[in-house]
Amino acid sequence: MTPLKPIAPGRKAVLGIAFFVVFVAVWAAATLGGFVSKTFLADPLTMVREGWDLFAKFGFAGDIAITVWRVLGGFVLAALCAVPLGIVMGAYKPIEAFFEPFVSFARYLPASAFIPLLILWAGIGEMQKLLVIFIGSFFQLVLMVAMAVGSTRRDLVEAAYTLGASARGVVRRVLLPSAAPAIAETLRLVLGWAWTYVIVAELIGASSGIGHMITDSQALLNTGQIIFGIIVIGVIGLISDFAFKWANQRLFPWSLA
Amino acid sequence: MSKLAIEGVGRTFPGVRGGNPTVALEPVSLRVEDNDFITILGPSGCGKSTLLRIVAGLDTPTTGRVMLDGAPVAAPGADRGMVFQSYTLFPWLTVRENICFGLREKGMPQTEQREIAAHYIGRVGLAGFENHYPKMLSGGMQQRTAIARALANDPKILLLDEPFGALDNQTRALMQELLLGIWEAEKKTVLFVTHDIEEAIFMAGRVVVMSARPGRIKADVAVDLPHPRHYTLKTTPEFSALKARLTEEIRVEALKVAAAA
Q: Residue A77 maps to which CATH number?
């Protein structure tokens, strides 16, 4: 192997899939071979069967739908507030000086620790779930968007000024398009984090959703269902990741090497 | 009245962490007439780029002022087009969109924008590359687009800060002829900063030589070589005589820089 040397796309896909195969094989060997007790870890076959039951008997599709809705709802709300704020912070230094210290502080407040408070304020309805995701995503998004906008190449800004651009023109026609790919990448990253917050929110005080199903299964010691739930989250995450990457490639063809 | 009047323009940068302030530019005065092609020649760090940035309005002088058509320059504007040494095309815009950037900012109708862009794309020999993104172009093509972008705005004066500095020798020679051809055809007022002696003579009607830091004007040499100029001019005795003279002027300054370092 040579450092940093790219590999052919076909080989890349084969290697990527190979690890999934190895992973499942080790898991199957450990469980079906009897090295691990069924109480602690279900084998792959049981998991698939339990997964089938979840869909057929327990309406798991509804749980998935409600969880996806919560993630998207909370995340879109956070993005709608955070992206504009991040842009003005990145563009205008006094605004950044005003908000940045507080946002940096708030970013370290764990969203999950707010759950008891949020239950107190918003009950255990949908608003509470959305707020957990909002708190978890908003501050991260603001800082990363501000950084993306603030790191615009200065010489491009100067070139725009010598072409007669106004301050607003520079924000609209230089800072925004220059930062757009990095902002899209930030959204992709933070959406992944939003998925961890939604499950935490559903583990406490929920009557539906993937997280709620996992708590229910824990009470019944059904590790097959728990693992199936976790894997479903992983698959949805992978799909949304691919969708983002695909969209970014089409939206920003100029930024690719 | 001169097109551009630089009147006692000096620039001192404040000291970093309580250090001594740096005098980048001692008060400099220079008059540029309409349709002049003036090159500013000097060793690295002589403040020639600082002077150009002040004319562009991207930097503020500590002393003095810059007058363009009798009005003082306070901020950057479309009346002074600039081409930078670094590649400053907007990577998210195509060649045509880059050239139309300033026109769009003025609110010009699309059809008119395209006509002007087409004219300058032809001028810099980039026909067929209108829809290419900058990353698909060579360095020379990017700088040609940057020149077209600055010219499309129809500025009163064109400022060039070592525009061919990052290009290889062959491309650089071709670019010099191309720019000179455009100047001969369009009759623009040009201020061109370079540290290359041959380039300074070949392009200019006047070469302004600057001293090592702190920068000031050391010599102002008229280049009375005929136009249109062809690359073979560089091998004529008149050219060589000028080159010998300017080489001596610059060498003294370069030695000062080396001694100070």
A: 1.10.3720.10
